[in-house]
Protein 1
Amino acid sequence: MSDKPLPVVEYLKIPDAGDPYLEGYKCGNCGATFLGERHVCSKCGARDQMSTVKLSNSGKLYSYSIVHRSFPGIEVPYVSAVVDLDDGVAIKGNLINVEPDPEKIEFDMPVEVVFKDALGRKDKDGNSYLSFFFQPKS
Amino acid sequence: MSDAYVVGVDMIKFGRFPDKTVPEIGAESALLALDDCGLKIQDMQALYCGNLGQASGMVGQRILQQIGQTGIPVVNVSNACATGATAFREAWAAVKAGLYDCVLAVGVEQMGKGLLGGTGGGKGIPKEGLLGSGTMPAVFAEAGMEHARKYGTTFEQFAKVSVKNHHHSTLNPKAMYQIETPLDQVMNAEMIAYPNTKLMCSVNVDGSAAAVICSEKKAKELGLMKRAIKVRASVLTSDPWQERDLVMPDVNSCTRLAAKQAYEMAGLGAEDIDLVELHDCFATAEILHYENLGLCGDGEAGRMIDDGETALGGRIPVNVSGGLLSKGHPLGATGIANIYEVATHLRGEAGKRQVEGARIGMTHVIGLGSACGIHILEKAQ
């Protein structure tokens, strides 16, 4: 078992020193940026032009759904959100610290990425995980 | 290349058949389609079988074990919710290419109840409800909310799709449900993923549908042209790159691409289409596809449902079968069931739900991930 939390997805990076961050892969040919490691660009087809970039922790709400029914054991309601980060990458996650009510959620509302424990979920070896969430910018 | 024609087509009444096997369910519609044109399994030169749940289970061969093992080639097809349309298209392509002049396509599915999708799998811990939702109702809710942000489309407008399609299904004896659902009932049903309530989600059912496809020469030889349906266009696309498609499966651009190609292949425009069976897996999705298929201009879909233009009797009736929302959505069967529905109208055999004077119709399915299949059909002259 790891004594430190593990990243919930491989594009969440936890450096030994400094704050966690999200990592993208940017195509040197066309500029498209992807979540997760890859070697070929699916926009332009360029090979071996990818380089890593640290993604912004700031963005805007693009679309969402308020989920009221999910699989057993998953707490509802929650807001499933698609966020456009300021550097042009779209990312999906839970929008927290907002009422799950369409009256209270506005398209393009500014949000920030925050890093927290993954709702107490642990893997079969008992490891804890660090996840990312969106919350309205104060 | 010669034209290809649907000469026989049918579906079973959709329902829940837990005591039957997948090949048994598929065999039923295969026999119905053969009976529809008076042909025998010995007349079929190949079988194209669409099924998702047992994609590695040789379902096509097991159907032949039920209805006649003639040694013909069998191709088993899996392409998410575009599976049935893909099987049909492979059958059509083989006839178009001159490989065969009479083939059978079957789509079949046996579904469980409950939510499909989810951001499961992978290493570590479950991601559902942690990194948003990958359930199908939520994914299609997010796609609908994208339309809402662009054009102000309302929860009520999305809900009206469900009112319409449930109404249509009261006229279709082969639909899973024949129940009217007024607007307040749809909007007040259990919220699954806003803005999709339970009555705005397609019904998980078991079902099958099948079609016999012949070359023009063969159809004429067999004397089957009277009820034959000409395939004016058959198109399959995958999702072209879009900036959000890693987190927001894109059902729009693959549909727009397929529609453009289908109209070009048929030499027709949207104004020539008399009825459409499109992929209303969720009420939100139907709104998107009015625009994606060119049935109205961008931003006009909300007005279109408000004005009743897509209801039976309207300018361009959509999903008069009841659609996936009420007829039901047995994934692998849906693409061919859509073709059955349109063909039945073109033949003037749709009874109470007949679209009067229907001459040309369109079918559309989306397999998330994504695949889009479109067919344009016309009654043979």
Protein 2
Amino acid sequence: MSGLYGILWQEFVVFKRKFVATSISFLISPVLYLVAFGWGLGSGVEIGGVSYMAYIIPGIIGMSTMMTSFNNTANTINISRIFYKTFEDYMISPINMTVYALGKIISGAFYGIYSATLIIIMVSIFTNDLVITPYFIVIALLNCFVFSALGFLIGLLVNSHSDMAKFTSFVITPMSFLCGTFFPIDKMPEVLKWIIYLLPLTHTNLALRTTGESSQQMALHAGILVAYLVVLFVLGARHCKTVE
Amino acid sequence: MLEIIDLTKKYKNLTAVDALNLTIADGEFFGLLGPNGAGKTTTVRMISTLTPKTSGDIVIGGESIDRNLISIKAKIGVVPQQNNLENEMSAWENLEVHGMLYKMPKEKRRQKIDEMLEFTELTERRDDLTKNFSGGMKRKLMIARALLHEPELLLLDEPTVGLDAAARRKMWDLLKRLKSKGLTVLLTTHYIEEAEILCDRVGLIDKGKLLRLDAPANLIEEVGKVTVEYFADGETHEEFFPTREKANEYAGSLEGDVRIRPSNLEDVFLKFTNRRVES
């Protein structure tokens, strides 16, 4: 466990050192989305009987935790492999690469959890629309871990910084807009709806709202996120052992 | 002891290391000398388990890296050519993380960190972020980090490349202190003086092949201890002689700009490859 603790301690030291800048950067996008879509475009709009602000807050938490967890892990791994070469120091140390994968995924997920906490504190000051349940917390945590695990795998697979940006443009950004963050996926064309239903963020957003869903549906969302997490973690840990 | 047996690394159209055979004894300070692209770094990367080998074997202290990867890793300390310290952490924090990764107990880890900072003359800078360090200080800290877990074998890949003359001298002093401790070291370099000053034995490597292997003095003697350097037909030529007398005799027969000097490992390399190491 000393190896895992070492990885987590290293990330924590760096986090502490950049605490203020990190905290502010985590709040900028959510605040802009809330102002533009919640108070701006969405004022006077209702979806499913609730105000638009109440509708998009869980979506923004889902989207922000996805982006923060993914970006932190993917960029840390990719830059440490290609630019700083700090990745090599872990490769030559006598820790199991599965432990390394676990450490980095936990660290990335922590950033997502931290960003969600900041958003929850911020929106709680202005509105009572957000209801936090244990299920909500479990789903938010799973979302952080799923996208941190995806970031770990992509950070290992992609061999240039520009390709990292392309992955974000082609996969992460479309997910953030299409997976029910800003509007219900029922409004999408039938074929597209099924594709969107396969994506993890869709289940996060549906689960964070949980309006009128059965317990089977709630379990299904959590189960799909767990399945994504297991597959992405196994792929990342396996690839980590062979990467040069 | 490090044994390298028929070690080969092939990329698509290139054989970077070609059936390398080498044995380094306990306590030996061994140098791999060759120009850029000779296969030195690839060899170090294969020993440090970063690059998978195509064929052959590497045995450290009786254990093959094929079978005992984790335990082999604990026996090696690596100083790579490129800085790979965590820039946003202090010198002490970099060492602390390394100690944790190598599963060193807390008390021993803290004691060794102090010892290594002292050894590398970085005690005063222990709490400074490494992004503010000079190139020489970063390299020293990387050596401290590589020694922290008390490895059996230290791999130094071009430890003075990119350093100015003063920093290089200081690094050589540090490496001499290291040598006096009796640690087994494999150093790669393309600096002639570095190999001559530090190494008990030197392997000359070019295009992935080991050309010669012996003590620097023996290699120089094999070529001729005295070099006559002269300029003719628009380029510098070298001829090698076993004694000063014979060199004087030959120099007397030449016209123009002639210089007689002691031979060095550059001359040895030139003799066997027709190429210069520091080119």
